[in-house]
Amino acid sequence: MRYLFEDYSFDTERRELRQGTDAVSITPQVFDLLVYLIRNRERVVSKDDLISAVWTGRIVSDAALTTRLNAARNAIGDSGEKQRLIKTLPRRGFRFVGTVREAPMCASTATVACPGDQSDAVPGGAVAHGPDPQSDDGVSILNLLSPPRLSIVVLPFVNLSGDPEQEYFVDGVTESLTTDLSRISGSLVIGRHTAFTYKGKTVDLKKIGRELNVRYVLEGSVQRSGNRLRVNVQLVDAESGNHLWAERFDKPIADLFDMQDEIVARLANALGAELIAAEARRAEHSVNPDATDLYFQGIAFANKGTTPEYLTQARSFFERALALDPGCVEALVGRAGLDEATAIALLTDDPAPHLAVAEATLDKVLSQAPQHALAHLRLGIVLVITNRITQGIAECERALVLDPNLAHAHAWIGLAKVYVGHAAETEAYVQEALRLSPRDARSYIWLMIVGIAKCHLDDDVEAVAWLRRSIEANRNHPLVHFFLAAALARLGAVDEAKRAARAALALNPSFTIRRARCLLPSDNPIYLAGRERFYEGLSLAGVPEG
Fold this sequence. Notes:
Number of domains: 4
Number of strands: 13
Radius of gyration: 26 Å
CATH superfamily of the largest domain: Tetratricopeptide repeat domain
Low-confidence stretches: 105-144
Mean pLDDT: 85
CATH architecture of the largest domain: Alpha Horseshoe
Distance between the termini: 68 Å
Helix content: 40-55%
């Protein structure tokens, strides 16, 4: 069938969208979403309707759905503000409201029809669906398609304890991890009911990857021995069979349900970072990267450290992603994070414009994706840094309601406590972040936050210990070197302080004490007294006044 609206022609057999005579580039999944909306244009379709039809009921985050809707709107010249063709009805769903005429299909060679659940384009735009069509040699058509990005199945963990009563705990870890991984924006996680069909079977991970059309397989085991619990996990590239990452937790047993929460949180956070890094490596070799490929590469550079060089490289990828897809929510949030970092890391003499741009971007994102946890957190950070601390903490807490594993939110609440003169409370928040994600790519920031709190408590010995831990985690964050220089200088270790200052200035050559005074997130007198000690230490360490 061909559907005609405005100056667009939408051919479901050829799987083509044209504006006039020009073909419009569109991914298979976005095509399927448009098909469903247009075919059901007489009614409002719910989010669940779309997920059931386009993703065949698989777990999909709100952010992923919003990104696809924005891409569909962009493809047909619509926008989230105008909603000329695709209208969002709050708390109800979505409806295609454009005037549509139906025309006979153009003669063509048939492709496999939609709806499908693929996010990658494939030759001819074919998308597998429905009851798993077979080719002549018995191989599923799905196996001929490229698996979607961030697609993963969590296989049922194996109970090695020899105690059948522990089975509920092992299954609980598997199920909770499946749910938590679905919070990774843009991820496609095979539902637990499908995953559990493999329980107790000897499996070929590459074969599972082909059967389920996923890029990654996670498998693990749980063993209880006496009063200790050991959990082993490994992430496997389902296409090559290569092991990408492995982890082991071995600790005394406390409350099993508390342990389950901690294990799942740690795994979900670590896996999120590993999956994005793996996707970024794939994207490096892509001949025609799309917005999502470019977003992953931007995140990879942003995770390397907070230097002008890394932030510039990350920004270039986010900007390229947005040039391809102006509604790419994740790239918008990523770019807002860079604006924040530029101000917070004191890489500029005028932080206010960067923070204003970040806030405007995040407000726009949250108007389109109100359940986006990271956007709430980033908005919270802007509010905290601009002396709206109570509001900022509330946004961080909102982010944690949406994603309890968002460890970075705990750390930022801890830093906010410094700004209101309660630095003694900070360490507990950071310890919670580290409990949830001890090997997080951002842990160096959290360790620095405790170091800053210790400086404000006039405990420079402890501050130095925490700041050195931060540098060991990531040496590419100039601000921590400046705080270390100040703390060492106040302890009388002036030569060592000057070495730390030189290391800081090598990463941020334009830094001055005057610049440090430009970003003042609080007028709390206790906080201001601590800042004066910081300026004094910088001066003793030989940092330029500016």
